[in-house]
Design brief:
- The protein has one domain (about 15-215, about 225-415): Growth Hormone, Chain: A (Up-down Bundle).
- The chain has 18 helices and no strands.
- The protein has helices spanning about 15-35, 45-50, 55-70, 75-80, 90-110, 115-150, 150-180, 190-205, 225-230, 235-240, 240-255, 265-270, 275-305, 305-325, 330-360, 365-375, 380-395, 395-415.
- The longest helix has about 35 residues, at about 115-150.
- The chain is globular, with a radius of gyration of 21 Å.
- The relative contact order is 0.17.
């Protein structure tokens, strides 16, 4: 393994280079957010899959692959990338693969969405796997590039700024979704095929910003361990760094909130008998929450550390399932508060967990820590499937209540482990 006694890697100092990094990540964040609005995991994706199949288990499995695919192979990806001095090209390859998956989903929906929805749902498994696995490959290169070009505070500030611009793009995406899914304008499957095609174009555009980043070389070991040795070293690395161990425990517990995220829209459709227009409406409310939350996260990032954002995000995850159960007894308009709060938790998780991990990771082990974090965040892989089974056999009320209880424990644990995320 690489020695941890090497000096800290220096961040990029030249102002023009820092501006390029800011531009690249904000540009990518803007168009990625526009793209992901076309397949929003809390509104659009659940509705689309429910139109192809009525099976909650199929949907839960697809959602698990969508979330867990980027993580499950992270140790293998991190081992491969740990010996690469320059990782930007791998980031671009991963983005191109993800955009191809968008195009594949668009074509599958257009051709078989009504003629053979079962086949379309089956093909989605292929495209979602490509989409998710390439995301994991690109994600490590993305985070490593960010980690070696900016220091801790600048990273957190950039992530908050990127989220703000991304939120405006998401709002624009919500308007597009609302227009395309407006009843009477376009019929299924043409409407969803078009949104996925827009996602394909947006993701290609998002990659262009990284072409202008001047990547400094990474420190690599002259004698890289074999993959088996690399994997066997994980328990030692986790045990030797208490902050990393606590981070992994807290993130796995916090992932229980992810278990039910896609079911809030399905719950609303069943309770209120909603038409497709509410997909866009709820998405706009969610994005509004994200925009407001980014102002909050940006302020906190200037005044405090990333772990504060992480803790507030977990606390919000306690409230959302209880709010859903309460507001389901009112009307569809009041229920939109659930999606407003989802906007907070979606952006908060991204900023809080990613920035906190980069804060605690030593420079010479950053790629390895990213791989460990992804692979050991195993709960996010199985929880969506468990969520579908819990809802099927226990119902929404008991499942939502259980999620809130787990999130209360995660919130307590994150606040009582003061070194959950070591600061620079």
């Amino acid at each position: 393994m690489i020695s941890n006694t090497e000096p800290k890697q220096k961040e990029v100092k030249r102002p023009d280079q820092i501006k390029r990094v800011y531009f690249a990540y904000i540009w990518h964040g803007f168009f990625l957010a526009l793209t992901m609005s076309m397949l929003d995991l809390n509104t659009v994706f659940p509705t689309l899959v429910s139109l192809l199949t009525s099976s909650r288990l199929v949907f839960g499995t697809l959602y698990a692959i969508m979330l867990g695919g980027p993580l499950i192979f992270n140790l293998i990806f991190s081992h491969f990338l740990s010996n690469a001095s320059f990782k930007k090209k791998y980031l671009l390859i991963g983005i191109i693969m993800r955009s191809t998956a968008f195009l594949g989903m668009s074509v599958s929906t257009y051709i078989w969405g009504t003629k053979n929805p079962g086949l379309a749902a089956g093909l989605f498994f292929i495209w979602v796997i490509v989409f998710s696995v390439s995301a994991g490959f690109a994600g490590i290169a993305y985070s490593d590039l960010l980690g070696k070009t900016l220091s801790g505070q600048k990273r957190t500030q950039l992530l908050a700024a990127k989220q703000f611009f991304a939120s405006t793009a998401s709002f624009a995406g919500g308007l597009i979704i609302t227009g395309i899914l407006k009843p009477g304008l376009m019929s299924f499957p043409n409407n969803y095929a078009l949104t996925l095609l827009i996602g394909f174009i947006g993701l290609i555009t998002a990659s262009l910003g990284f072409l202008f980043v001047q990547e400094p070389p990474s420190k690599i070991s002259p004698n890289r361990d074999s993959l088996i040795t690399y994997i066997r070293s994980v328990p030692h690395e986790v045990k030797s760094d208490g902050a990393l161990l606590r981070f992994i425990i807290v993130e796995n517990l916090a992932s229980f909130s992810v278990m039910v995220l896609p079911f809030y829209i399905i719950y609303a459709r069943e309770v209120f008998k909603l038409d497709s227009s509410y997909v866009g409406k709820y998405l706009l409310v969610q994005v509004s929450g994200t925009i407001l939350s980014n102002l909050v996260w940006g302020y906190i990032s200037r005044k405090s550390q990333a772990k504060t954002i992480l803790r507030l995000c977990i606390a919000t995850g306690v409230i959302i399932p209880l709010a859903a159960l309460t507001l389901a007894r009112t009307n569809a308009q009041a229920y939109s508060l659930v999606f407003f709060l989802l906007g907070f938790i979606v952006s908060g998780r991204h900023i809080g967990f990613e920035a906190s991990l980069l804060d605690l990771a030593p420079d010479d082990k950053r790629t390895q820590y990213l791989g460990i974090r992804g692979t050991l965040n195993i709960s996010i892989i199985i929880l969506p499937i468990m969520g579908s089974l819990f809802i099927e056999f226990l119902g929404y009320e008991i499942t939502f209540a259980l999620v809130s209880l787990v999130m209360i424990y995660a919130s307590w644990l994150s606040r009582n482990n003061s070194r959950c995320c070591r600061a620079d």
